Amino acid sequence: MDFTLCLTSPIISFLVHFLLLVASLACPVLSSQSQILNQTFQTQKEFLKLNIIRTRLQQINKPYVKTVQSPDGDLIDCVLSHHQPAFDHPLLKGQKPLDPPERPKTYHQNQMGSFSENFQTWTLSGESCPEGTIPIRRTREEDMLRASSVRRFGRKIRGRVRRDSNSNGHEHAVGFVSGDKYYGAKASISVWAPRVTNQYEFSLSQIWVISGSFGQDLNTIEAGWQVSPELYGDSYPRFFTYWTSDAYQTTGCYNLLCSGFVQTNNKIAIGAAISPTSSYRGGQFDISLLIWKDPKHGNWWLQFGSGILVGYWPSMLFTHLRQHASMVQFGGEIVNLRSSGTHTLTQMGSGHFAEEGFGRASYFRNLQVVDWDNNLIPLSNLRVLADHPNCYDIQGGINRVWGNYFYYGGPGRNVRCP
C-alpha cells in the first residue's frame, strides 16, 4: 500500500492532529518546569555565594573591644593589635607588632605646614581607639556584594604599574626614578575628591615602591588616597595601602583585607575617608607619606605626616623587596572601562590639567628617596610620563620650597580625548 495515500485517511489524519495537540499542551508544562529548575538553580547559587561571603567576613572582621560610628556611615572596630588580620599569616602567627625602627635621616626641606593625625572623618569628633588596639574599618556584606568578583575581593582587578599601562584600561600620569637601589620614598600629595563615573572604575594618587622584572614576579608596596565606589560604596577619597609579590595575581590586598600589613597605630584607620580635601581655587590640603626599609630587620615601614608611624609590611611577604627597590613611582592612576564606547569621564587628581597650576591642579611635592645609608635625599633624575596626555597630563619642576614636584591630572573625556 502506498504510504503517502495512507496519511490521507481520516483515522491517520485524526491521530496526527491529536498527537500535535498533546505536544502543544505539554510545552507550557515543560517550559514551566524549566523555569522552576532555573529559579531553583539561581537560588542555590545565591545561597552558596552568601555562604562564601559570610565565611570571608568572619575571616576579615575580628572581635573588637569598641566600635566607633563615623559620620560618613563607616563602622570602625577597635581590635586588639595582636588579633589583627596580619597575624593570620602562617609565618606571622603568634607574633606581636614590632617596636619602631630607626627612621631615615631627614634632608631639610620646607614642609609648607604639617597636619595632625586628625585627618579622617571618623576622628573629627575626637574619637580614637584605646591603647593596645588598632582601628579597622568594618567590612560588610554589601561591600562584598558590590564586588565584581567575590573571590578577588580586596585585590586590584588586573592591577598595573606604569610600564604595563597600555592594557586593561589602566591609565597613568607619573613621575619616576629608576636605575639605582632604593630603600624608600617620601612625598606630600594633595588630596581631592575626583569624579568616578563607573562603579568598577577608580581614581587614585599614590607612591609605588617597586622591584622585579615587571613580569609575574613583580613586587610592589603602595600607599596614597583613592576613590573607589566598588570597594567602599561611596565617592570619598580614602587613605589606602596595597602590596603584592606576584604582579597582583594571588598575593596582597588593599588595606587590612588580608594577612600582610601590620598596623601599629591606634588613631589612623586604613581605608577610612580623608577630611578635609582640596577645593578648586580654594584651600589646598595634602598628606605626607614616607615608606622606608628598616636597616635592622628589613621590614618596610609607613609613616604619615611628620612622624606618625602607621605600621609595616614584613620583609617575608616579598621576594625582590627583601633586598631593595629598583624603581619608585609617584602619581595618579585611573581605570577606563570605556563602558559607553568612549573614553571615561572619570577624573584624575583635581580633574584639571597640570598647566592650571597651584590651587587648580593636583600636585606631588618634596619628592625624595631613601638611599643605602638610610638618608632621605632629593631626586636627581626624575622623569615624568603620561600614558594619554590628552586625557591626563603631568608637568614637573624643582624649586627651593617644594624641591622636586609636579602637577598632574585631567578630566578624562574631552574634545582632545574622545
From TrEMBL:
The Neprosin PEP catalytic domain extends over 164-418
Keywords (alphabetical) are:
Signal
- Coiled-coil boundaries: none
Can you tell which superkingdom this protein's organism belongs to? Eukaryota
Q: Where is the signal peptide?
A: 1-26
Q: Which residue intervals make up region (Disordered)?
A: 88-107
Show the InterPro entries listed in the entry. Answer: Glutamic_endopeptidase, Neprosin, Neprosin_propep
- Put simply, this protein is called Neprosin PEP catalytic domain-containing protein
Organism field: Acacia crassicarpa (northern wattle)
